[in-house]
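Module 6 notes. Inverse folding takes a fixed backbone as the condition and produces residue identities as the prediction. Think of it as a translation problem where the source language is geometry and the target language is the twenty amino acids. Below is one complete input and output pair. Work through it position by position during the lab.
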């Protein structure tokens, strides 16, 4: 039976803005308060989805969230009509309104952790929505994320869904941004690689001193248990605290894996040699041959990696066994990074080609190509059980492009977030989107 890795890309929401809400994310903070362009951001993301589909890759779409989140503001004491809640929040607590308007759900690499059926005890694909507990504006996402994923992967014979972990610091979970999977083929048993920033209960693990470590070891272990993963099919590794303090807020800012390949920076992990040996041993036991590709700090510094998002790239398997690296335009703008990539693809190694995409709108908000997609390995039967409305096709691309053109603004500032009309525009857009994607009622305004 054939198997595929399907990339479900997040559709950038109508309130895309540069709120600078993510402490530890250098790009997000450095562009805080600048004017954004939601329409351009959504169209750039759709163009990437369409391009990958045209290259023959399986591509899907993950819907954005309702913003501003008026219900969240009500829980914080703002009362009255929806318009009054927004106006009062803008007057009394603008930072809370900005947080409630964040379009950060576009980073669907943080939406959930996914384990394919070949790895799980019950032979189903398992999803655990990330609690994203480290940041308030992200912690309010998982209830809607769970409903959207449930509408996309509804067949209980093939798919299992778990609620987010307890919303406390000890179980901080950032989803697939700190998780990858190695395998010989997507339909075969693999090794799931969980990267954590700190341990909540074991003081033997060092922590960063400046920026928060968002993923805990305890959260990673809990997800592995929920998904029914075997000890032989899991490797845990600690992110280097020093690189977290340099702006590497998730592992996918410093490493990316696919198939049998791990593409990583020399300074990405602690105890790197031990981790590589464990991965190599466990991958060999499931019939694979581990291929680590280390980028030396002498060629690309951590600062280069953070500024260019070299590692926040998509590493895709092609039919001939080679791999394609999808990078943002910022990689071409960094001389050291671009020189390294030219040498990499010319070396005869497994990564043979680099394709560049303009994702400036999302990059300025702190995320690149890998942040925008959630990877789901599916066999033919499971793919057929996915809601067909969310699988990218040429007609769907045209429908979504027209939908964006109708509903999105081309300029967004902090002051625009205080406009009650923005909520009505967002709800109107999302109500139409759920019909296009055949999701049913998944948003609070549709349910309540």
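Target side of the pair, the amino acids:
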């Amino acid at each position: 039976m054939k198997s595929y890795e399907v990339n479900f890309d997040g559709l950038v929401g109508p309130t895309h803005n540069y709120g600078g809400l993510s402490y530890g994310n250098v790009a997000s903070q450095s562009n805080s308060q600048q004017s954004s362009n939601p329409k351009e951001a959504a169209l750039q993301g759709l163009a990437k989805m369409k391009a990958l589909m045209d290259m023959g890759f399986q591509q899907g779409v993950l819907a954005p969230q309702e913003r501003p989140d008026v219900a969240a503001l009500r829980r914080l004491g703002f009362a009255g009509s929806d318009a009054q809640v927004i106006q009062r929040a803008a007057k009394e607590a603008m930072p809370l309104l900005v947080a409630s308007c964040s379009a950060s759900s576009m980073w669907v690499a943080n939406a959930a952790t996914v384990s394919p059926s070949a790895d799980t005890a019950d032979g189903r694909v398992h999803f655990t929505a990330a609690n994203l507990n480290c940041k308030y504006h992200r912690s309010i996402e998982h209830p809607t994320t769970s409903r959207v994923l449930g509408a996309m992967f509804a067949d209980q014979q093939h798919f299992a869904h778990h609620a987010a972990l307890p919303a406390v610091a000890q179980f901080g979970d950032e989803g697939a941004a700190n998780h990858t999977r190695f395998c010989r083929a997507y339909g075969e048993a693999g090794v799931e690689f969980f990267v954590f920033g700190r341990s909540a209960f074991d003081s033997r693990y060092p922590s960063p001193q400046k920026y928060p470590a968002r993923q805990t070891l305890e959260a990673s272990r809990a997800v592995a248990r929920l998904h029914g993963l075997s000890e032989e099919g899991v490797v845990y590794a600690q992110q280097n605290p020093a690189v977290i303090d340099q702006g590497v807020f998730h592992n996918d800012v410093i490493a990316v894996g696919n198939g049998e390949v791990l593409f990583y920076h020399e300074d990405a992990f602690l105890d790197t040699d031990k981790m590589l040996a464990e991965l190599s041993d466990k991958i060999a036991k499931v019939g694979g041959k581990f291929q680590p590709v280390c980028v030396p700090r002498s060629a690309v510094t951590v600062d280069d990696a953070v500024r260019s998002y070299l590692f926040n790239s998509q590493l895709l398997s092609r039919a001939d066994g080679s791999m394609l690296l999808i990078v943002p335009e910022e990689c071409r703008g960094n001389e050291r990074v671009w020189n390294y990539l030219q040498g990499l693809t010319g070396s005869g190694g497994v990564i043979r080609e680099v394709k560049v995409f303009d994702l400036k709108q999302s990059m300025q908000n702190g995320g690149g190509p890998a942040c925008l997609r959630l990877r789901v390995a599916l066999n033919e039967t499971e793919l057929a059980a996915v809601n067909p409305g969310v699988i990218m096709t040429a007609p769907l691309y045209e429908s979504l492009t027209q939908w964006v053109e109708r509903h999105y603004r081309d300029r967004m500032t902090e002051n625009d977030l205080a406009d009650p009309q923005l909520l009505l525009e967002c709800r109107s857009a999302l109500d139409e989107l759920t019909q296009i994607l055949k999701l049913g009622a998944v948003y609070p305004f549709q349910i309540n």
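Reference fact for the lab report: Confidence is low (pLDDT under 50) at residues 22-29.
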